[in-house]
Amino acid sequence: MATTTIKFKLNGQPVTLSTHPLKRLVDVLRDDLQLTGTKEGCGEGECGTCSVLLDNRLVNSCLVPIASVAGRQVITIEGLRSTPRFDLLQRCFAQAGGVQCGFCTPAMIMAAEAILSANPYPTEKQVREGLAGNICRCTGYGMIVEAVLEAARKGGGLW
Amino acid sequence: MVNTFRPSDLAQALRIIADTKPTVLAGGTDLMVRHKTWSGVVPHFDRPVVLIGHLPELQGIEIRDERLFIGSAVTLAAILEHPLVPEHIKSPIAQMASPPIRNLATLGGNICNASPAGDSLPMLYALDACLHLESVRGRQTVSISEFISAPGRTCLEPDQLLTAIEIPLIKCRTHYYRKVGQRQANSISKVSFYAAADYDKQRIHWVRIALGAVAPTVVRSPAAEGLLAGLDASGLKAVIPAVINIYQGLLSPVDDVRSTQQYRREVSLRLLENYLTRELMK
């Protein structure tokens, strides 16, 4: 069994693809589906750069074999882009200076979305805990934390 | 190229495990790293793989007869979010890995990995957890200390699957957990220390103490715990050097990339001393 047929929902749309069942979700997204907004950093679950939402939970897509995604729902940065929540997060990240080189940013936005969906009014400590699996080598984190807190303040029912 | 199986129920999974002796993958947070090759290349497994993370029979959390049962494929995040799970069980799990990894990683996986630095293990040893193993031949229950035999080694037979973790719920007045690592999230422990106790103003009813990452398997001493049970505050003070001495004899830490023997020994004994002098009977 070199390949198998996998069906799942990607950014709200049903997807059917034929691939190796143990191929990593990050590779399927980037190589098979050309969704290159999701980045690969360490490939070991340490850096969080490949974070996506799987059934509305933040996961490292480098650790997920595609066969375990069957029947489930994946949201990537491309899917989040069309939402008003993304618009607000994008503005807050820009205003706070939370984007420098930008490599960690798609995953930071996904993590921010996961934090605010679970808790629309997080404390700074909760934001820092929610971002703990995502590494940024530029900002020193303060500006990213501030961006998420600002999005929470301005969110007014978006989450 | 190895076969990958995604069984639809536990019975089918047990048959596949008996027939193919596969690598069992639940959350994948260790296995996908251990078997990865290059970006864009399928991870290399040399045995068939059976996915069990989705099996409904392995997802439950329930209490029966004062005992908590956690399905082996329950994620760490699901344990932390569950209202039936007491704080003294949640506290070490809350410090494991990172939020995205806790959404994938399972308690069963942490146990079957049998890493000396497995962060759920000191808590499970201290609370006398039992493991439910199943195969097409039948069911078996073993204590966690019997189950883990050496670093990375368990007594799991090739056709068996860990299906549930059973933890007796004891009345626990305080619990104390310290993990020493390089980074707050995602660090593999250099040393970890777990204790739970019940006491009143007069005396200690019982204490359980377990140390991780300082020996091939978790260190727990029934002799030392026996010395502490029943003591009052002055008795406790008098016995502390003897208790520390017992643990000192049980530590056999290693030098590795994360830390040194000397550091592990020093820090674990200081955590023990701090617990006995400042936390217990506080």
Specify the helix fraction band of chain A.
Answer: 25-40%
Q: In this structure, how is the largest beta sheet of chain B organized?
A: 5 strands, antiparallel
Overall CATH architecture of the largest domain in chain B = 2-Layer Sandwich
Count of extended strands of chain A:
5
Describe the global form of chain B: globular
Radius of gyration of chain B: 20 Å
Strand content of chain A: 15-25%
Order of helices and strands of chain B: EHEHEEEHHHHHEEHEEEEEEEHHH
Rg of chain A, Å, rounded: 16 Å
CATH topology of the largest domain in chain A: Ubiquitin-like (UB roll)
Strand order of the largest sheet of chain A: 2-1-5-3-4
Q: State the name of the first-level CATH class of the largest domain in chain B.
A: Alpha Beta
**Helix content range of the residues of chain B, please?**
25-40%
Instruction: Report the order of strands and helices of chain A.
Output: EEHEEEHHHHH
> What is the CATH class designation of the largest domain in chain A?
Alpha Beta
Distance separating the two termini of chain A: 43 Å
Residue windows where pLDDT falls under 50 for at least 5 positions of chain B: none
Features:
heterodimer; A: 159 residues; alpha+beta; DNA polymerase, domain 1; 5 strands; B: 282 residues; Uridine Diphospho-n-acetylenolpyruvylglucosamine Reductase, domain 3; Enolase-like, domain 1; 2 domains; four-stranded antiparallel beta sheet; 14 strands
Note down, in words, how this protein is organized.
The complex is a heterodimer of chains A (159) and B (282). In chain A, 38% of the residues lie in helices and 16% in strands. Chain A is α+β, with helices and mostly antiparallel strands. Chain A folds into two domains: 4-79, Beta-grasp domain (Ubiquitin-like (UB roll), Roll), CATH 3.10.20; 83-155, DNA polymerase, domain 1. A five-stranded mixed β-sheet of chain A has the order 2-1-5-3-4. In chain A, α3 (84-96) packs across α6. The longest helix of chain A is centred in the last third of the chain and has 14 residues, at 105-118. The radius of gyration of chain A is 16 Å and the shape is globular. With 282 residues, chain B is an alpha+beta fold. Chain B folds into two domains: 4-168, Uridine Diphospho-n-acetylenolpyruvylglucosamine Reductase, domain 3 (2-Layer Sandwich), CATH 3.30.465.10; 174-279, 2-Layer Sandwich (Enolase-like, domain 1). Chain B has helices at 10-20, 31-34, 76-81, 87-94, 99-102, 107-113, 121-126, 144-147, 222-228, 233-250, 261-279; strands at 4-5, 23-25, 49-51, 61-64, 67-71, 130-135, 138-143, 148-150, 153-154, 161-168, 174-180, 191-199, 204-212, 219-220. In chain B, the strands form four sheets. Chain B has a five-stranded antiparallel β-sheet with strand order 4-5-10-6-7. Chain B has a four-stranded antiparallel β-sheet with strand order 11-12-13-14, with helices on both faces. In chain B, β2, α2 and β3 (49-51) form a beta-alpha-beta unit. The longest helix of chain B is centred in the C-terminal third of the chain and has 19 residues, at 261-279. The model of chain B has no long low-confidence stretch (mean pLDDT 96). The chains are: A alpha+beta (159), B alpha+beta (282). At the A-B interface, α1 and β4 of A face α5 of B.
